[in-house]
Amino acid sequence: MTPESEIGAIQAIGPVASPPVSKYERLIARAKGVPAAKTVVVHPCDESSLCGAAEAAKAGIIVPILVGPAAKVNAVARDCNVDIRDFELVDVAHSEAAAARGVELIHEGKGELLMKGSLHTDELMRAVTATSTGLRTARRISHVFVMDVPTHAETLFLTDAAINVFPDLDAKRDIVQNAVDLFSQVGLGVPRVAILSAVETVTAKIPSTIDAAALCKMADRGQITGAILDGPLAYDNAIDSEAARIKGIQSAVAGKAQILVVPNLEAGNMLAKNLVYMAKADSAGIVLGARVPIVLTSRADSVRSRLASCAAAVLYANARRNVTAVPEA
Q: Is the pTM of this model over 0.85?
């Protein structure tokens, strides 16, 4: 092919398309447009947790307050070549003390977010849920995965796959409301919420279908606000319009769900990991229902997932700055 014909072929094809902007990149860009949130980072004593906080600070999303054994935190920073000289560092003896002191700093008004470091999730959550000293409110604490699935057009919120093992109806109401509040307060509008089960009809043989129907009626009565609910819906007809059409399901949610509410933690955990490992999804994580949002990260999380977790929490915190906080119990 001559140079002239090569040029003609390129012109016929048209300009090379730019790679699509990921859902997380849009979320992170939105978070950069609001004031950075002071974030208490509990026990950042490994590379992933310390670098995650540092990357979010570099992006202008958070202002970290590091809480942990100072010698260990500084050693990790040196080994990873991370400059933490501009970060406040609160020296405590060990991870349990870090969790307790982190919660105290929130009570003292020193931080707007709590971020998990290298300690175990249950160790942090024990401090958060402690009866007299924790961060409980009247709302049930629950976890939301914010998932960027490459093959799916919209961001998917999945709840609860990490905190509540077998939630009852009252707990599910709070789980739904927490996810709805997050969805709207990060700037995504009014969500379509699918209450998942194995089938899309109500039957006493599958208790989650009865809970799903009750939650939808609670939304009709104003006990859940700010969203459009439908359920029970099976996973396929919740996210795929053709599957919903074949089943003859007509609703504003079927085939177009943005928030997926699972029956229990086991189902949610398996669904989330299936999306991550089979559909190559990214998963950001945030805990809601406490006095402040809590960023939960995993050692396996990518930098982008960590930034997205921080971004969601920062946008949620920013939306709460000018409104009344969730009432305490």
A: yes
Stretch 262-279: mean pLDDT: 95
The crossing angle, in degrees rounded to 10, of helices 47-58 and 70-80 is 70
Amino acid at 75: A
User: What H or E segment, with its residue span, contains residue 201?
Assistant: none
Tokens of residue 183, six digits: 């969805």
Query: What CA–CA distance (Å, rounded) separates 318 from 155?
Result: 20
Closest-CA residue to 84 (of 34, 25, 44): 44
Q: pLDDT tens, 150-181?
A: 989 889 999 999 999 999 999 999 999 999 99
3-state SS of 146-164 is EEECCCCCCCEEEECCCCC
Please check whether residue 326 is in contact with residue 138, taking contact to mean a CB–CB distance below 8 angstroms: yes
- Radius of gyration from C-alpha coordinates of the chain: 22
Which of 256, 245, 237 lies closest to 192 in space, CA to CA?
A: 256
Backbone angles phi, psi at 261, to 5 degrees: -105, 115
Cβ neighbours around 74 below 10 Å, total: 16
Tell me: the pLDDT tens digits for 239-254?
999 999 999 999 999 9
Residue 38 — φ and ψ, nearest 5°? -65, 125
Model pLDDT, residue 204: 96
Q: Which H or E element spans position 196? A: strand 192-196
Set out the domains of the chain in order of their start, with CATH numbers. 24-135 (3.40.50.10950), 138-289 (3.40.718.10)
Per DSSP, the three-state class of 238 is: helix
What's the average model confidence in pLDDT over 79-84? 93
Residue 264 C-alpha from the chain's centroid: 17
Q: Decide if pLDDT at 17 tops 80.
A: no
**Selection from 309, 327, 328, 320 nearest residue 112 by Cα:** 320
Taking the C-alpha atoms of residue 201 and residue 148, their distance in angstroms, rounded to an integer, is: 29
pLDDT of 8 reads 46
The H helix count followed by the E strand count for the chain is 12, 11
